[in-house]
Design goal:
Elements: H1 3-20, H2 22-29, E1 54-58, E2 61-64, E3 69-72, H3 87-100, H4 111-123, E4 127-131, H5 134-149, E5 153-157, E6 170-172, E7 178-180, E8 195-198, H6 203-210, E9 215-220, H7 236-246, E10 250-254, H8 265-269, E11 276-279, E12 290-294, H9 296-303, H10 324-337, H11 340-363, E13 369-373, E14 376-380, H12 389-394, H13 398-409, E15 413-414, E16 421-423, H14 430-448
Helix pairs in contact: 1-13, 3-10, 4-10, 6-7, 11-14
The structure holds 4'-deoxy-4'-aminopyridoxal-5'-phosphate.
Length: 449
């Protein structure tokens, strides 16, 4: 990679972004009352000197306030995997909020049992409870796991991401031991007091850590998706299940992103048998929603425990969780939008996307790789594809990533700002995918000079 050329091209794309998006640039410059000038600090991750401001979004399309249209492969980093504002979800939300009223009444609606039954049909776990974010679903699942096992620690994979869960911000350090994830903001305590860590795809390390006998639960994605996509090697997930069972540790599958694998996520696609399952983002079709599921046996054991305050301030639950609006949105999304048919179409599009990226990489013989998990595809600046989170973390190249993201955005394509991730929604078309293939190839040609 000619770094000087890359820097020149990045500067050119930055200039072009400023020229194309003067209103976004001004809005950002004027946002003096926002911490970091954005409504949530992550929005500063946008490639370039300022984020593009949202005007409208529908299906796989987004427009910005400067009047540009984009094919959206970011889809709110999965929150809009059902497409932006699907009509049936909009109708369900309108009906619940405006026609019937009662978005937040602290009373159940009949939709909730429908959603619970559907989640059981898809993922297998027998009992469900709702949250508004995947982070909270994970927090509450962790508390339940600790309560039921009486053990203090949680184990996660190095460079996994499970939301802003204190216990999960741990990586394998250079000496092979657990260490705080770099950049962790205001940790409440040394993370090694609450957590253990193992590399994804490393059963020996997992066994060593579980052998301490103090791990309540392994919290994991069946494939890592937040440090590129790192797929499980043959036998790894079976090994995780066997080891967790042998050591009396519960297994929590976080399907928030791996839901892209199919209607029942990786859990259904690969016949996995977690004790708990967490999910968020996409299942509300754009309305905040999350959920955790647990086996009937685990649910009964928890409900029988008189010492656990599950109906007030015991640390599990939230005022707005399971509200009627969020539940109505989940029902509409699962019943009508993220259906088996939709996943089949999205997966085909994702295969097409993957083939386009591979052709670009091959044409320039780049040492990059591309991985796919159902409707989600991601390329990484490493070949062969990394097999652990730490390997994948070592392959980041922020300058190159910024260039590609900005190059694509300046030509009407949005990727997830956090990495080179592209997600298909039910409204994505072959033409959308082909546009990416074409622009990606042009970016690589520009880089090659
Ligand atoms: N789990 C996984 C696997 C995620 O990717 C994320 C967010 N990227 C979360 C949990 C947390 O989701 P949220 O920020 O919506 O709470």
């Amino acid at each position: 990679m000619d770094r000087a050329r890359l820097q020149d091209l990045l500067a050119r794309e930055m200039e072009q972004a400023a020229h194309r998006c003067p209103r976004s640039k001004d809005a950002y410059a004027q946002a003096d009352h926002l911490f970091g000038r954005v409504p949530m600090t992550w929005m500063n991750k946008a490639a370039g000197a300022f984020p593009r401001y949202l005007a409208t979004a529908r299906g796989a399309r987004v427009t910005d306030i400067d009047g540009h249209e984009y094919v959206d492969f970011c889809l709110g980093d999965t929150g809009a995997m059902a497409g932006h504002s699907p009509a049936v979800v909009a109708d369900a939300v309108q009906r619940r909020f405006a026609d019937l009223g009662g978005a937040t009444a602290m009373l159940p609606t009949e939709d909730a049992e429908w959603v619970g039954a559907e989640l059981t049909r898809r993922f297998g776990l027998a009992r469900w409870s709702f949250s508004l974010t995947a982070t909270d679903a994970n927090r509450w699942a962790i508390r339940l796991a600790r309560a039921v096992t009486g053990r203090p620690k949680i184990l996660v994979n190095s460079y996994s991401y499970h939301g802003t869960v204190d216990e999960s911000l741990i990586v394998v350090g250079p000496d092979g031991r657990g260490a705080a994830r770099p950049g962790n903001v205001g940790a409440p305590c040394d993370v090694t007091l609450t957590s253990r860590v193992a590399e994804f795809n490393d059963l020996e390390q997992l066994e060593r850590e579980l052998a301490h006998g103090d791990v309540a639960a392994v919290l994991m994605e069946p494939a890592l998706t937040n440090i590129g996509i790192v797929l499980p090697e043959p036998g790894y997930l079976e090994g995780v299940r066997a080891l967790t069972r042998r050591h009396g540790t519960l297994l929590i599958n976080d399907e928030t992103h791996t839901f892209s694998a199919g209607p029942g996520g990786c859990t259904a696609a690969w016949d996995l048998e977690p004790d708990l399952l967490t999910i968020g983002k996409a299942i509300g079709g754009g309305i905040p929603a999350g959920a955790y599921g647990l086996s009937a046996e685990l649910a009964d054991r928890l409900l029988d425990r008189a010492d656990l305050d599950l109906v007030d301030m015991g640390g599990v639950g939230g005022t707005l969780a399971g509200n009627a609006l969020s539940v109505a949105a989940m029902r509409a999304t699962l019943e009508h939008v993220l259906t088996e048919d939709a996943f089949a179409r999205m997966t085909k599009l994702s295969e097409r996307f993957e083939a386009g990226v591979r052709a670009g990489i091959d044409a320039h013989a780049l040492p990059w790789s591309v991985s796919r998990l159902g409707a989600r595809t991601e390329y990484r600046f490493a070949s062969p594809a990394p097999r652990t989170g730490t390997e994948s973390a070592a392959a980041t190249d922020p300058e190159l990533e910024d260039f590609l993201h900005l190059y694509l955005a300046n030509r009407g394509i949005l990727l997830t700002p956090f990495h080179n991730m592209a997600l298909m929604c039910p409204d994505t078309t072959d033409q959308d995918v082909d546009l990416h293939t074409e622009v990606f190839a042009a970016a690589l040609a520009d880089l090659a000079g």
